[in-house]
Amino acid sequence: MRMPTFLAQHRAAVHASVDAVAAVRPEHLTLATPCAEWNLADLLVHMTAQHHGFAAAARGNGADVSAWSGAPFRQAIATDPAATYAAAARDVLEAFAADGIDEAPFALPEFGVDVTVPGATAMGFHFVDYVVHGWDVAAALGQPFSLPADVVAAALPVAMSVPDGDLRDADDSPFARAVPADDSDDDFARLLRHLGRNPEYR
Fold this sequence. Notes:
By secondary structure, the protein is mostly helical. It has a single domain (7-149), classed as dinb family like domain (Four Helix Bundle (Hemerythrin (Met), subunit A), Up-down Bundle). 49% of the residues lie in helices and 3% in strands. It is built from 7 helices and 2 strands. It has helices spanning 7-21, 40-58, 74-79, 81-96, 119-141, 149-160, 187-194, and strands at 105-107, 116-118. A two-stranded antiparallel sheet has the order 1-2.
C-alpha cells in the first residue's frame, strides 16, 4: 500500500484543528477571523464542507458539486460546532486512509470545471488548508496554536509552492496575498505569512 509521505503529518494537523474547534461554543460564532469577511461560523462551515468534499473526492464522487456545499452544515454548526466539525474530520481521515489513495483521481470542481488531480496532490492541498485553518480558529478565539515540528516541516514546502501575486486578488482565491516576512519568523510564521496571514493576529 503506497501512501503520501506526509500522511501521518496530515492526520496530526487535522486532529490539531479538531482540538482547536473543540473550544468553540455557539456564542463564539460571530467572532471575526483572520479570513477576511468570514466570521467563525462561516469559517467552520467552510472547513466542514471541505472535509466533506475531499472525502467525496477520495471516494470517486468529487465531481458532484453538491458534495462541496456548506449549506447542509450551517444549522448543525450553529447548534453544536465542535461535534459537527469533528464528525467531518473523522470522515475525511477515513477516506484518505484507503489503499492506493495517492494515485486515485480526485475531482475538484472548486478548482475549475473538470479539474482532476492525483490523490497525493489533492491531499497536499487539504493538508496545507488545515494547518492554517486550525490556526485561524485558535486565533479567532485568542487561543495559542502550535503544531509538531515534523508537521510544520512537511507542510512548509507545500505551502511555499502556492503562487503569490495578482491571482490572489481574485474573489475565488483561497489565500490573500503573502504578508511581508519578519526576521524573527520561525517556519510556522513563514508558512502563515506566505498564505496571507499575520502571525500576530489578535
